[in-house]
Amino acid sequence: MAEVKWIKIVTNIFDDEKIQLIEKMPDGDAIIVVWFKLLCLAGKTNNHGVMMLSDKIPYTDEMLSTIFRRPILTIRLALKTFESYGMIEIFDDVITITNWDKHQNVDGLDKIRNQTRLRVEKHRKRQNLIADGTCNVTCNATVTQCNATDIDKDIDKDIDNKENIREKTQISPATELCEQVWQSFITNCPSLPKPVSPTKWTSARKKAIKSKRITVDEFTNVFKKVEQSDFLTGRTGNWRCSFDWVLKPSNWQKISEGNYDNKRGDCGELTTNNEPHTGKCQEKSPQYGHIL
Prior knowledge:
mainly alpha; Arc Repressor Mutant, subunit A; 3 domains; two-stranded antiparallel sheet; 7% strand; globular; disordered C terminus
């Protein structure tokens, strides 16, 4: 894809809680610079937020250190921070910016694509009129017949290629499963970062879905347990899980077995298996909240 010359940054970005927390870190300013450099690089690659140097080579932390002209330790700290805050996902060594669409002026891009499509349709109609002998167009020495410019030809070729790819592409059962699982996750886990579309998934992520050999309904049941867990959704702290974290076999089994379900302690308060109850009841004070 051609690179995008701009990305969308809201004016109140520094009011965002995640950015404010990062600013308070020892290397906060450096980490924020890395974040903006990462967004710009994603715009250049124009791959829906998936950071790939080529179709088969993902950007590594060493590559980013060289490109961003920042120490490798700063890059690694930044990536770890972004992942913990749900700003990126790292799966199969591929970095993906979550919710990439919010950094793109999607309406503007759609308008450009629509204008291009209409221009190509108009050009094709002109060509058909010429072929039928019904077009009476005056051409001079510097303009080709009916102004069939190189730009129009390139656009024609690009759209024809896309149409050919679309015709050759058939939705396989495995692809349909990934689509349904993805849709189930974003529907049932609104508190968690939205993963990228399955069309941009790595083979490892698709394999993680297919290897479970369960129905979409069974996936949905687990996703609902995740959303109900205060610990996994970050309601009890700063950390929250991601789509890839849930898919890992060991984590999947623990979720299925209820290890992350909210529990009620001896005094009726909600806890999780990750935050064991202290065994001490709290006496409620109307003035000072809870006291031991």
